[in-house]
Design goal:
- Helix content is about 75%, strand content about 0%.
- It is mainly alpha-helical.
- It is elongated.
């Protein structure tokens, strides 16, 4: 029986497996963060009726037109930031699942920014329902970051960013 002689000294390319359990868990948490953010946006939009009263109580000297403009601006900002937040959760989940090293760093930076925003929210006064509601996505983000920076996750990101990954 004839067996061909190897023509080069290159080892066969290793078989790629999916991401380790820690990355899978981080990705699941990121998807959960997107769902929680979407639910938060829906609840905020459903309770928009109380916004006008809150704005009027905070600024009693505003005219009806000014109050309407302020309320409209608030709703537009709420929807824009809500959709951006949901998009970031999903994008980070997809990129981290794909093993992009930069995505782990970006997710960590976004978590740090979220932490600062949460702390600023708590320092503005007594813990409000909005501040407490912001705690759940933060906890989800914390879990995702912990899983992303485990040793087996690091090995996965290193393997995926090596020369054979390109």
């Amino acid at each position: 029986m004839y067996q061909p002689y190897p023509s080069s000294g290159q080892a066969p390319e290793p078989v790629r497996q999916g991401p380790p359990a820690s990355v899978v868990m981080a990705v699941r948490l990121m998807y959960a963060g997107a769902v929680v953010s979407a639910l938060s946006l829906v609840v905020s939009l459903a309770t928009i009726g109380s916004l006008r009263t809150s704005l009027r109580n905070a600024n009693p000297k505003l005219t009806a037109a000014q109050l309407h403009t302020l309320q409209t601006g608030y709703v537009i900002a709420l929807v824009a930031f809500g959709l951006i937040g949901i998009g970031l959760w999903v994008w980070m989940a997809l990129m981290n699942k794909a093993g992009r090293s930069w995505a782990r760093i970006v997710a960590s930076v976004l978590f740090g920014l979220n932490t600062l925003a949460l702390l600023l929210g708590f320092t503005r006064g007594a813990a409000s329902a909005g501040s407490l509601a912001a705690l759940l996505p933060w906890l989800i983000g914390l879990g995702a970051i912990v899983f992303l920076w485990r040793r087996d996750s690091g090995e996965y990101f290193t393997a995926m960013s090596g020369p054979q990954a390109r």
